[in-house]
From TrEMBL:
Pathway: Amino-acid degradation; 4-aminobutanoate degradation. Pfam families: Aldedh. It comes from Kalmanozyma brasiliensis (strain GHG001) (Yeast). One of its GO terms (molecular function) is succinate-semialdehyde dehydrogenase (NAD+) activity. This is Aldehyde dehydrogenase.
């Protein structure tokens, strides 16, 4: 294994940062910053211009995974014995360091993901909120119970202990916030982590690992392995490793199923935050401005690339035409372009695969009878130069047989469907194999209550397009996965509860 003893900040990209040492291109194994065993690398490309290589990063394999897990394991012995208060203090320092480095972390997120600087800064604050939340939760979340035993000779108690080595498999859409949403509660509980960022977006995770060190964590609490092309091997090595006790994934349902299969031989505890197909239901009595603002937020955040993105927009017939007109007027104002340009409101997508998915969904919908209400006709292909852009688009006449109705588009395409009755809307909304987020716009409390109970998702927004907050339980039902992240429930995902029964007679 080779190491140059630096953070590997050879690129001129590092000079974009106030603190260039946060530009790290090495994996993290204990105290070391290393190249991979294979010596192979992959490129991180700027989504705003595919010719720009932002960094060259180690391509890991099973040996690197094994090293990272060994590092996790040896640190776990010591770290699991720290007190909850010590861990709370450490997380608070990490939160402060994250916020103190907001400009640099946001720059890295813009360069690896392409989102706008405003969105990237918002992401860093969202990421820090999980650290501060779990700093507060650390002590409360470690408390056990005393149970009234039926047998008077017995005393029964529970204690909560860290589950052990945890694998955090991260997506590219909110690379830092999803890192802290997993690493925060894991560290609060006393676990150590092997983190695999998405191949497209490793830089913010690697910088964060440096902040973990600066916060004073023991080496080996957070280890990072990186891969793009070898993700199948690395993912399998993590899932099949007997010393990894828990895997937490945010990613597609396809990958979620694979991880669950691969983790079956060692029966790991899993948290699966997978794909969605969020319906938005706009009732006739909705406040139109509020509905438009919320729909655009839910549709266009991170250029439409979130698992809770509005995917099927159902509008009641009495408000349908007015809603469409207002949506078009507003969407026209979204300037698409380079994330670093302060006038940009919509950045590029992550890869050309993502652009192609939008193109294919629009083409398929048009073939099956949808109408193009706003945006260009999809070309048969896109040029293989420039950034990964798909223009904001509105389709009307969405129906069940279209791909866009059954798969998340993950892009700035708004597909609208007219409905007549509340029952019809509910039926369309629930006609999905996944159930993550849903949104309802109405001023009728009775409708809101019926919809909240009837929609088959893990999260519902009433008159809001934002479901995400560190204090709100985040997670889905059906094929959107299981487990809750954030909130007072998020830490238990990284713990075991042990019951202790003592015979006090004699
Ligand atoms: N819930 C969410 O937040 C996300 C949902 N998606 C959905 O997936 C669609 C396709 O996106 P795409 O990026 O191509 O998705 P993939 O399903 O190929 O990958 C999603 C994530 O899983 C990781 N991954 C892929 N294969 C494995 C594996 N064998 N073991 C472990 N991890 C693995 C990827 O890492 P790597 O990048 O290194 O390949 C990536 O981070 C999107 O359009 C969207 O619908 C995608 C990402 C996030
Ligand atoms: O899975 C995702 O798309 C990232 C989570 C989004 C959020 O927390 O709002």
């Amino acid at each position: 294994m080779s190491s140059n003893g630096t953070n590997g900040n050879t690129s001129s990209e590092a000079s974009r940062l106030k603190d260039p040492s946060l530009f790290s291109t090495k994996i993290v194994i204990g105290s070391q910053r290393l190249d991979s065993h294979s010596g192979k690398t992959f490129d991180v490309v700027y989504p705003g211009d595919r010719k720009v290589i932002v960094a060259t990063i180690p391509e890991c394999n099973t040996q690197d995974v094994n090293d990272a897990v060994s590092s996790c394991l040896s640190t776990f012995k010591e770290f699991s014995q720290t007190t909850a208060r010590q861990r709370s203090d450490l997380l608070r320092k990490l939160n402060d360091l994250t916020l103190a480095n907001i400009d640099d972390l946001a720059t890295l997120i813009v360069r690896e993901n392409g989102k706008t600087r405003a969105e990237a800064e918002a992401e860093v604050k969202y990421a820090a909120s999980f650290l501060s939340w779990f700093a507060n939760m650390a002590e409360v979340g470690c408390q056990g119970e005393t149970i009234a035993a039926a047998n008077p000779s017995m005393r029964i108690q529970t204690i909560r202990q860290p589950i052990g080595v945890v694998a955090c498999l991260l997506p590219w859409n909110l690379p830092l916030a999803m890192a802290t949403r997993k690493i925060g509660p894991a560290l609060a509980a006393g676990c150590t982590c092997i983190v695999k960022p998405a191949g497209e977006t490793p830089l913010s995770t690697l910088a964060f690992a440096e902040l973990v060190k600066r916060a004073g964590y023991p080496d080996g609490c957070v280890n990072v392995v990186t891969t793009l092309d070898n993700v199948a091997e690395v993912g399998k090595a993590i899932c099949e490793h007997k010393h990894v006790r828990k895997v937490s994934l945010t990613g597609s349902t396809r990958v979620g199923k694979l991880i669950a299969q691969q983790s079956a031989s060692t029966l790991k505890k899993l948290s699966m935050e997978l794909g969605g197909n969020s319906p938005v239901i706009v009732m006739n009595d909705a406040t139109i401005d509020k509905a438009i603002t919320g729909v655009l937020l839910a549709k266009l955040r991170t250029s439409g690339q979130t698992c809770v993105a509005a995917n099927r927009i159902l509008v009641q017939s009495g408000i349908h035409d007015k809603f469409l007109e207002a949506l078009k007027e507003k969407i026209k104002t979204y300037k698409q372009g380079d994330g670093e340009d302060s006038s940009t409101m919509l950045g590029p997508l992550i890869t050309d695969r993502a652009v192609e998915k939008c193109r294919a969904h629009v083409a398929d919908a048009l073939e099956k009878g949808a109408e193009l209400y706003y945006g260009p006709q999809p070309p048969s292909s896109f040029p293989d130069e420039g950034g990964f852009f798909y223009p904001p688009t509105i389709l009307t006449g969405l129906s069940d047989d279209m791909q866009i109705a059954t798969e998340e588009t993950f892009g700035p395409v708004a597909a609208i469907r007219k409905f007549e009755t509340e029952e019809e809307a509910l039926e369309i909304a629930n006609n999905s194999d996944v159930g993550l987020g849903a949104y309802v716009y109405t001023n009728d409390l009775r409708v809101a209550a019926r919809m909240s109970a009837g929609i088959e998702t893990g999260m519902i927004g009433i008159n809001t397009g934002m479901l995400s907050a560190c204090e709100a339980p985040f997670g889905g039902v059906k094929e959107s996965g299981y487990g809750k992240e954030g909130s007072i429930h998020g830490m238990a995902e990284y713990q075991i509860m042990k019951s202790i029964t003592t015979d006090v007679s004699g």
